[in-house]
């Protein structure tokens, strides 16, 4: 029998709780807490998203994909166009020369660590002997004209500045039509301009010059890289960043007196010829001209083409090789001769002392002879 108020032996008293005291949450309560939290978070997130959408444009689309890893310029592959440009640009300068007619401007490139810069003769022609150069970083330095050769259109100026980086020279005789090239310079005063193209033709014989001025001859490298006024004297470089030519002239479809512009026909002096002239100018102050000792007065005007010799200098290279007045020069080292310019320009491509093969016709007979080219007496 259980007596009220008395705890039976061996039994625990019933727990007594205060209904007004805070109790421990039940399982039901525990389950309701995350559900309510999720609902509140969803509502708040939707409200914020709507607010941001309204401020940024309702329904604005996300454009583009995830950003890709783009290499820095210093990490460009050396053989890429960007890599070549990065290496060569510090060696290219803008050349400014003052004269009575104002200031002429062109391009040039550092040829030696002690400051010799190659440019075109027509860039410095008529100057006072003083010039200045602007480097790729925008800094400037005074320069003096060391020497120039009007007929080859090469001039050398000198700057005094530590830490100059000369270009690397290539071999213009190793070029092939279709090789990629870059033209670097300051066209229309736009410094550090790089344009790309290919070698369009080789040994394109050129006769250039202003009326009343010197006549310039060279067997040019033709390129479709964009070249304009101000590119003159700048380098034409190959796919490895080696200088293979000196940008010099362009062809353009304009009337006389109008400003010419690029139409994809630009011409550069082969660097092998430019280097030889530069070394002559640095060493002696003037350049030697290569001659064959003969003069052609025009196309032969007969089947098979060629140039008829109007004059052969006694004891000159052509005379020593057995050529005579009236002989028709057909080819020099395999290059067909069609205009008198061809003979002069192609011969000047070679250094004095070079031996070239001349194919000619005397009467109806075709013959070959070897001619050792010489330097003129000027």
TrEMBL record:
InterPro entries in the cross-refs: Chloro_Bact_Ser_Proteases (IPR051201), PDZ (IPR001478), PDZ_sf (IPR036034), Peptidase_S1_PA (IPR009003), Peptidase_S1C (IPR001940)
Alphabetical GO biological process terms:
proteolysis
MF terms from GO for this chain are: serine-type endopeptidase activity
Q: Does the record's keyword annotation contain Lipid metabolism?
A: no
Keyword terms: Hydrolase, Membrane, Protease, Transmembrane, Transmembrane helix
* PDZ domain mapped to chain residues: 302-364
- Where does the sequence pass through the membrane? 30-53
The segments labelled Disordered in the record are: 1-22
Question: Pfam families from the xrefs?
Answer: PDZ_2, Trypsin_2
- Gene3D superfamilies for the chain: 2.30.42.10, 2.40.10.120
Q: What is the name of the protein in this document?
A: Peptidase S1
* Organism of this sequence: Micromonospora inaquosa
Lineage at the top is: Bacteria, Bacillati, Actinomycetota, Actinomycetes, Micromonosporales
């Amino acid at each position: 029998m259980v007596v009220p108020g008395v705890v039976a032996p061996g039994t625990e008293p019933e727990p007594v709780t205060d209904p007004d005291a805070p109790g421990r949450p039940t399982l039901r309560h525990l389950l309701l807490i995350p559900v309510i939290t999720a609902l509140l978070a969803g509502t708040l997130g939707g409200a914020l998203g709507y607010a941001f959408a309204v401020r940024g444009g309702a329904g604005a689309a996300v454009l583009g994909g995830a950003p890709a890893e783009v290499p820095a310029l210093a990490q460009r592959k050396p053989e890429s166009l960007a890599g070549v440009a990065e290496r060569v640009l510090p060696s290219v300068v803008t050349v400014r020369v003052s004269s009575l007619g104002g200031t002429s401007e062109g391009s040039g490139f550092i040829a030696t660590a002690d400051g010799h810069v190659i440019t075109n003769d027509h860039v410095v022609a008529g100057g006072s002997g003083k010039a200045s150069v602007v480097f790729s970083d925008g800094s400037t330095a005074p320069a003096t004209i060391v020497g120039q050769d009007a007929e080859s259109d090469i001039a050398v100026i000198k700057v005094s500045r530590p830490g100059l980086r000369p270009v690397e020279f290539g071999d213009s005789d190793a070029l092939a039509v279709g090789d990629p090239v870059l033209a670097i310079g300051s066209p229309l005063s736009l410094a550090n301009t790089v344009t790309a193209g290919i070698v369009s033709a080789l040994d394109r014989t050129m006769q250039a010059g202003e009326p009343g001025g010197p006549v310039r001859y060279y067997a040019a490298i033709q390129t479709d890289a964009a070249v304009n006024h101000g590119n003159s004297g700048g380098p034409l470089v190959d796919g490895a960043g080696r200088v293979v030519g000196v940008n010099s002239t362009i062809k353009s479809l304009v009337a006389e007196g109008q400003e010419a512009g690029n139409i994809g026909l630009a011409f550069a002096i082969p660097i092998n010829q430019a280097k030889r002239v530069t070394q002559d100018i640095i060493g002696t102050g003037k350049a030697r001209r290569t001659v064959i000792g003969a003069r052609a007065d025009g196309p032969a005007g007969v089947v098979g083409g060629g140039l008829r010799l109007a004059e052969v200098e006694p004891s000159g290279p052509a005379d020593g090789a057995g050529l005579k007045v009236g002989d028709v020069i057909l080819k020099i080292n395999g290059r067909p001769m069609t205009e008198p310019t061809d003979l002069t320009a192609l011969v000047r491509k070679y250094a004095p002392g070079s031996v070239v093969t001349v194919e000619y016709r005397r009467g109806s007979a075709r013959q070959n002879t070897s001619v050792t080219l010489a330097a003129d007496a000027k």
